[in-house]
Batch of 2 targets.
Target 1
Amino acid sequence: MLESIVIVGAGQAAAQLIASLAQDGFSGAVTLVGDEPYLPYQRPPLSKKFLAGELAFDRLYVRPAAFYEKLGTRLMLGTTVARIDRQDKAVLLSDGSRLPYSTLVLATGSRARTIPLPGADRAGVFFLRTIADVEALRAKFEPGKSLVVVGGGYIGLELAAVAARQGLKVTVLEQAPRVMGRGVGPIVSRFYERLHREEGVDIRTGVAVRAIEPGRVVCTDGIHLADLVLIGAGAMPNVELARDAGLAVEDGITVDAQCRTSDPAIYAIGDCTVQHHALFDRRLRLESVHNALEQGRIAAAAITGKPAPALQVPWFWSDQYDVKLQMVGLSAGHDEAVVRGNPDEGRSFAVFYLRQGTLLAVDAVNRAPEFMMSKQLIAERARLDPARLRDERVAVKDLKV
Ligand code: FAD
C-alpha cells in the first residue's frame, strides 16, 4: 500500500518536513491539514517587519503555493483536526470526515498564553500569534494612542519597539524584576531596559496587573491609561490532540531523538514537543524557528530511513529598533558570565556564559561574528580563557585557545 503521511498544523515545522521528505526521496502521499487559512508562514516578522508594514504579505510564506503543487502535497487549509483515532489510524476533521494515515505528524505549534485577569477578554485587548492578530492590531495603531504591553518578553518588547517608532505612547509592564528573564541573563535584560527607555518607552518591572478596564490598566503601581492592550505572556504548546489520544505528554508532546511520540506511527515536531537534548543532557521545549526546522529534518530522516542530521546547538534571535540579539546555547548552570564590550554604553556587546571554563551559551547584541563563532565553540564544548574573551584586542577568530 502507498505510504501516506498526514501532517497536522501548517506552520514552519510542517513546511520544513515537507521539503525534507522530498529531499530524502519520500514517494508516498503527503496531506497537510492546517486550521489557519494560509500556507505555512513565518511568525517572526509578525512582531517585527510585517507589523511595521515593511514586509509584504506574500513574503511571510515559507514556500510559495507552487512548491506544494510541484510536490503533489494535498493542502487542507482552514481545516481543524478534532481527534486522532489511533486504533484505525485516521484523523477526524472538524467537518466530520475521516482521513486515514500510515504515519501521522503532529506539528500543532503553540498558542498565546492567556492570563486570568478581570477584563482580559474585552475589546481592545490583543494577542500576537497569527496574521489575523496582526491585522486586528495594526488597524488600531495610530500615533499618539497609548499602548500598554503586559509582559516584557521578547514578543512584547518587539511590538513595543515597532509601536514606539510609529509614535504610540508605550508602557511595558513586567511582573518579574527584569525583562526577557526567561531568555537572557541579567546583563542583557538591563541593556534592553536602557534601550527601550532611550527610545521613549516606559518600562516598569516588578509590577503586577490587577485588572484591565475600559481605557486603562490597573496595576500594583497605580493606573496606566491604555487605548490598546497587548498581552505578551508567553506561549502554551498545543498538546490537546495528543493528550486526548493517550500519547505521552509533559510540558509538550514527549518525543524521542527521532521525534517519535509514544506511538511509533506518530511523530511530533516544533513548538509542541518536549525532547531530550543530548548536548545539554536536559529535556527541552524550545519555541524557536531553528528547533522547528531541525525537528522537521530529523522526522523526515526517520520516516524515510535516512541517517539523522547532526545535532545542532539551539539558537534564537530578536530584533528591536536597530539592535539584533542572537542567543545561542543554554546558559542554565553557568558559573561565570564574561562580557565583551560595554553593555552600559552604545548598542553592541556579547555575554559569554561558562561553566568551569566551558562555553555553554552566548547572548550577542549586534555582534554577528561572536554569535557565528560561538555556535561552533559550544558544539565542541570548547574551554575558553575569560581574560581573552573580555579583551577586544583579541580577534573573534582567535578566541579559542
Ligand atoms: P506554528 O508556527 O505555531 O504552527 C502550528 C500550526 O498548527 C498553527 O497554524 C496552528 O493553528 C495549527 N494547528 C494547531 N492545532 C491544529 C489542529 N488541531 N488542526 C489543524 N491545525 C492545527 N522564533 C525565532 O526563532 N525567532 C524569532 O524572532 C521569533 N519571533 C516570533 C514572533 C512571534 C510574534 C511569534 C508568535 C513567534 C516567534 N518565534 C520566533 C517563534 C516561532 O515562530 C515558532 O517557534 C515557530 O513558528 C514554531 O513553528 P511550528 O510549526 O512548531 O508551530
Target 2
Amino acid sequence: MAESILPRVTLIEHPLIRVRLSRLREKTTPSPEFRERLHEIAQLMVYEVTRGFETRPIQIETPICETTGHEPARPIVLVPILRAGLGMLTGVLAILPEASIGHIGMARDERTHLPEKYYLNVPPGIGDADVLLIDPMLATGQSAAAAVAQLKSEGATRIHFICLVSCPDGIAHLTSAHPDVAIYTAAIDEELDARAYIVPGLGDAGDRYFGTSG
Ligand code: URA
C-alpha cells in the first residue's frame, strides 16, 4: 500500500485513494464533490502518515478488569499552508480531533518570485509535537521548503509533509532543503508546466476546492 521511494518519501498507493484522486483530476468534477473526495483521501492518508507515531502505555480499567492501554507519546500539531491546505485539513482533523492547529500563509513575492510568509500562528509546545504540514500540491517545492523553515524557526523538530499530488521537481527541492522532513504523497506526477502547474495534476487545488475558478 505505501511504497518508500527515497528514504523520506512515501507514496501512499491504495485503490480507494486512486479512484477518488481520479475524480479530483477530472476537470468537470464540481466543487462540492471535489471537497468530499479531498476530505476522504486526506482521512485515508492519515493512517499511513501516523503509522510510525509513538504511543506510551497507560493503565486503564475496562468494565471487566484493569489492563494496559495506549495514548499518543507526543502532541500532534496540524499546519495547513493557506489556502489550499485548509481543504485537506478537514479530512485530517476528522481522524485526529485531538490535534492542535497552526496556520501558515505563503505568497509569492512579485519581485523576487520567492515565497514570503504573510501569516504564521502556531500553538505553544510545537517543539515537542509531531507536526503535519499540509498542502495538497507539491509543485516547485519552494513554498513547502519555506514553510518548513518557518516551522523550524518556531522550534518544530519532527515535521511530516503531507500532500495529495507531487512531482519530481518539488520532491527534489524539499528533500534537498530539508532532508529530515518525511514526505507523504498520494501521487507523483510527471512534471511542471511553464506556469509551474503539475502535469497532469488537477489544476488549481484552492480554486477548485473553494469554487473560485472562473
Ligand atoms: N498549486 C496548485 O493548486 N496546482 C498545481 O498544479 C500547482 C500548484
